[in-house]
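Hello,

Our lab assistant flagged a job as stuck in the queue for most of the afternoon. It eventually completed. Since we weren't sure the result was trustworthy after the delay, we are filing this so someone can double-check. Below is the sequence as submitted and the structure that was eventually returned. Let us know if re-running is recommended.
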Amino acid sequence: MNVFSGLSTILLLAITAHASANTCENNFLAEGDPRNGAEFSTNTTIAELTSASALGQLRAIALADGFTVLGEEATATEGTLTIEQKNGHHPFLIYLTAKNNHAAADVSIRTKLNRRTVAKPEDIRAGMCGMIARIKPGAAGEKIAAAARAAIVPEAIEEIQPRWLAQDIYFLSKRKTAEMITAHYKGKRYLLDGTVGEPLETDGTVELWYKVTIDSNGILQTKAADQSAFWPPIVCRMADEHRARAIKLQAGEYAKLTGTVSHYQPGIPSKLVLKDCKFE
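-- returned structure --
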């Protein structure tokens, strides 16, 4: 027996066995107690695929299946697309991730259901693996991904008073988790105009906190004025080239800024944080 021929056969069998085991269905995991929110995930590796192609195709697949596409964070080698299952009374987030792996891409999907939401694992597995199965390798997949990205309409900058944005976030927090609020607002761009507190320097960053509470006039006290004490502050983290101007402001002075939502941070107080803020 030729030693090299035998070794090649063994290696081929090993590779074939690994590929067979590394399937979406075999890698599916169902974990957690539904009373706390069951978690589901799966992953697989697809040859002749890049992370960018995988994410672009998954965007098209998600939209075709009726999901809400909330946002994408990506580099040249990996990224995550966040979508929301919007059917029913308790929507939940789903994270679609792709990462380059030599001439292939590792693709994974994960989600956590809301508390006490019950779903059959086999139904979740069929849904997740059904999405992955529709990803096409090579040039065909690149064409689908390019078309999906070409259809993206950039969001316009929305002009809004900081207090009314804070009010929107406050009411949303009654129905959604901090993770869901971040997913819905991340990447949105705003033009804000109002009074700010004393500038804060933290970790090399200058922050301006907009005043969102409504002053009481003592006679015509409104419900909004009462609630505004609980509204989350709107915090702008200044872009590098605008920090020097921001630090000169004093409490009670006006600032008109554009910025992009970074995240919603629960706490005391909770706050909506915008990044790369610039003076208008």
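-- support follow-up --
The delay was a queue issue, not a problem with the job. The result is valid. The two ends are 79 Å apart (CA to CA). The chain has a mean pLDDT of 89.
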